[in-house]
């Protein structure tokens, strides 16, 4: 893959008349979200035709990332110390080469050695996340659509997610943290997979040796794994949990603690609530995605050939 992402080491900072910060050609003027290590701001800039366009700018605090350290064992049995900034650079190395309509595009990386911050310029998706998690109720909410689920919208979102994942897998990349909060939508319902902080490059046999991502979206075989498991199939399971959550606004598996959650994922059957009512085809697709046996679980290739989904 040839990178279409700009990498800029020059950084100029100023303020406009309203006090908004200007980073190079980008004026930052609204908070979109904040995590433990990064802030996302809405930005505007002029393109070559002097048209004002909007972007999202993800801002990392380098020093905070350097202080967060992880001790891991290498394949040779040696202890290695890594910091979170190294993980961000690994993420950048993966995403800077991605170019697909259903993958959140990184347009520019602004990284100046003397700056305490690192900037990623991304597509701006007006509708925000597919779903937001509400810890108090342990339910998801949809901030961009209050209507009940319908086949057309289900198919439109699922086919785009499938195409995005198929592109990643074809390039030997696993997202490793697919969930509704890491999927964003544009104004015209274009679905984009975002946040590649857990992403991995696969080996030749598509297997991984360690579970990654959010526990509630881990597959039964990854929870029970004593050795390696197929990363592609585990990601299909996460797609199933995501689409189940989109339909019912709850997780298919949960628990009072991590042990109970893992036991539930590995041993409990999938329960389909009576409300909201869904069509036979939506339930059929969810059952195929949430097949606990990775050998018989539907593949992305099979999904892309499903007559109902592609009609």
Instruction: Provide the residue-averaged pLDDT.
Output: 90
Order of SSEs, N→C?
Answer: EEEEEEHEEHEEEEEHEEEEEHEHHHH
Tally the helices. 8
Give the N-to-C terminal Cα separation: 31 Å
CATH homologous group name of the largest domain: Transferase(Phosphotransferase) domain 1
How much of the sequence lies in strands comes to 25-35%
- What is the CATH topology of the largest domain? Transferase(Phosphotransferase), domain 1
Shape summary: globular
Number of domains in the coordinates? 2
User: What does the largest sheet look like?
Assistant: 8 strands, mixed
CA radius of gyration is: 20 Å
How many β-strand runs?
Answer: 19
Structure, briefly:
With 311 residues, the protein is of the alpha+beta class.
Describe this structure in words.
- Belongs to the protein kinase superfamily.
- One of its GO terms (cellular component) is cytoplasm.
- Residues 26-309 form the Protein kinase domain.
- InterPro entries: Kinase-like_dom_sf, Prot_kinase_dom, Protein_kinase_ATP_BS, Ser/Thr_kinase_AS.
- With 311 residues, the protein is α+β, with helices and mostly antiparallel strands.
- It folds into two domains: 6-123, Phosphorylase Kinase, domain 1 (2-Layer Sandwich); 128-304, Transferase(Phosphotransferase) domain 1 (Transferase(Phosphotransferase), domain 1, Orthogonal Bundle), CATH 1.10.510.10.
- It has helices at residues 62-67, 84-95, 151-170, 220-223, 231-248, 258-267, 280-289, 300-304; strands at residues 6-8, 13-15, 21-23, 26-34, 38-46, 52-61, 69-73, 79-83, 106-111, 117-123, 128-129, 132-134, 139-141, 173-174, 183-185, 191-193, 200-201, 207-208, 229-230.
- It has an eight-stranded mixed sheet. Strands 11-15-16 form a three-stranded antiparallel sheet. The protein has a two-stranded antiparallel ribbon with strand order 7-8.
- Strand 2 (13-15) and strand 3 (21-23) form a beta hairpin.
- Helix 3 (151-170) runs antiparallel to helix 5 and helix 5 (231-248) packs antiparallel against helix 7 (280-289).
- The two termini are 31 Å apart.
- The mean pLDDT is 90.
